[in-house]
Amino acid sequence: GDSVTQMEGPVTLSEEAFLTINCTYTATGYPSLFWYVQYPGEGLQLLLKATKADDKGSNKGFEATYRKETTSFHLEKGSVQVSDSAVYFCALRDGGTSYGKLTFGQGTILTVHP
Amino acid sequence: DVKVTQSSRYLVKRTGEKVFLECVQDMDHENMFWYRQDPGLGLRLIYFSYDVKMKEKGDIPEGYSVSREKKERFSLILESASTNQTSMYLCASSLLAGSSYNEQFFGPGTRLTVL
Q: Which of A1, A17, B38, B114 lies in the 20 to 30 Å Cα band around B86?
């Protein structure tokens, strides 16, 4: 079945540091890929997405590129802020499903210090 | 703005009690989902529904049931709560297929503790 593996957390950075959170996946067919973010005390929000190979999703300074050859969708940001502290989830949606079912990674806790 | 609301943010129940978690969305979405979120395990799908009165099992349906009598409302039922069902429960909704961009919108979650 489908699966998503994220780098182990928690990740602790200083403000303005570079961020990478690794995500790799296993899926049949041609999945769509997502990054969701969960701020403290809230539900998940879509951060960015990519639907085909070599697509780059971007939002709020975050980027991720759909790499089919390495089955990866790593999240990056050039300069993190304290307000980026949250839990980040990588997810995929199998291209064959008609119900939009998502498979999530285990989540990575990011803490950014001033 | 899309809004997904859940009936309680925090809930404490006793072992063996019947528990109802309610979710309402206001965007006329066809799909609705219930997940549980546990540290180190991410989100796991319990049940989903693609239409009124329709339901499909997700990855971990054991110990749970669902009800969807109206399009906007999707209920998760724990028939006899157990301590291993202590978790954060998240509801989500999305449009039906047809678009590869149909995003899932999440509610704020219900943190359930079973004593």
A: A1
